[in-house]
């Protein structure tokens, strides 16, 4: 059995954190003033469903005195709830039972009195997953349930619940467990498991769990599996299980960016990706490092502004992850180019002659005047793109969109490719210091839109036109 199931709290005293919520519910149990519906919100693994089960135990415990709130865990009702076989506690997962038919069945269930207990407890986990018709079907029952029924709705996304549902429940917001409380709980569990684990390992597990106690217990179970009863587990062994943080490599990348050493930055990114690190996770590590730098440099205007620019670039590139899944390192590489371009327009990979802006508004004439410069810049770094751009012309500006006119559809399709388009957009950003979105269309030689080609007069003409469409005029 996994540790988080084995050590699920069976009394309020065992429940970790959420002191205010515990105190309120304990007082309700003693006074007998039980609301007909609870709504527990908060992140995963902090005890929402566990608290719902404790309420079910306390309300239906056969040996609990009216002056106390703790269940006895010895009577038949407590034992059945602990084992999950109680007929008077119905726990539903709304992620897999989310339709109106399930809610109609539930409404039929609550009409009947409990089998042998005082209350029938209905727990709906991940309540935000219910469909709109299901919510509507639940609404009337939730508003005026039978006196013997108590609803407990648990969700990680309360913003997805209809206001009509929220207003009919007593809402309690669960918080993440503090680092110290996670470490203390892990230490107590490891002692009960008769395993010796150093404080540095427990601290690493607690930090990696980020306040989610269930995640922490799952990681502890994996660490314990490395050793055995009575054997001490070292930090080096625990590192085989605890997911590594690459914040040290992220700091190294940021330092290379500040030194404008693009080649070394690209090599580091390649090394990270080859090691199997998810580019999305590494981007988040970089963002976290920049955020920490920003916080420590609040009184340093220069460092603060530089960190803000870098943070903005990395956040925007994190949004490109799904669009560039075909080349996972691309968002990181583009972030490096943009950051170095803002600090030092000339980098180790692409030598761009930066155009000095005379006005804040970028005009089509200015782009046309620098077009040959752009092609020469790309000639040694992206030959295919150079050929495509040589056969096109900047047509017009539509806000921040630059529309290019292509004579041949083959070249137009090349620019439509996300990889090439993003590359070109970033080169233009460094050249003109203004973000442009590239668009395009196929045009005829007289700058009008191309029409469907006429049928060739003979087979020789057909061959010549096909070659011209792909390679241009020779």
From TrEMBL:
Kindly list the GO molecular function terms attached to this UniProt entry.
ATP binding; DNA-directed DNA polymerase activity; metal ion binding
Provide the catalytic activity annotation.
Answer: DNA(n) + a 2'-deoxyribonucleoside 5'-triphosphate = DNA(n+1) + diphosphate
**In its UniProt record, which GO terms are filed under biological process?**
DNA-templated DNA replication
Q: Kindly state which keywords UniProt assigns to this record, in alphabetical order.
A: ATP-binding, DNA replication, DNA-directed DNA polymerase, Metal-binding, Nucleotide-binding, Nucleotidyltransferase, Transferase, Zinc
Q: What Enzyme Commission number(s) appear in the record?
A: 2.7.7.7
Which GO CC annotations does the UniProt entry carry? DNA polymerase III complex
Q: Domain of life here?
A: Bacteria
According to its UniProt record, this protein's enzyme class is transferase
Record PANTHER family: PROTEIN STICHEL-LIKE 2, REPLICATION FACTOR C / DNA POLYMERASE III GAMMA-TAU SUBUNIT
Its quaternary organisation is:
DNA polymerase III contains a core (composed of alpha, epsilon and theta chains) that associates with a tau subunit. This core dimerizes to form the POLIII' complex. PolIII' associates with the gamma complex (composed of gamma, delta, delta', psi and chi chains) and with the beta chain to form the complete DNA polymerase III complex.
- Please state which protein family the record places this protein in: Belongs to the DnaX/STICHEL family.
Q: What is this protein called?
A: DNA polymerase III subunit gamma/tau
Q: Which organism is it from?
A: Candidatus Jacksonbacteria bacterium RIFCSPLOWO2_02_FULL_44_20
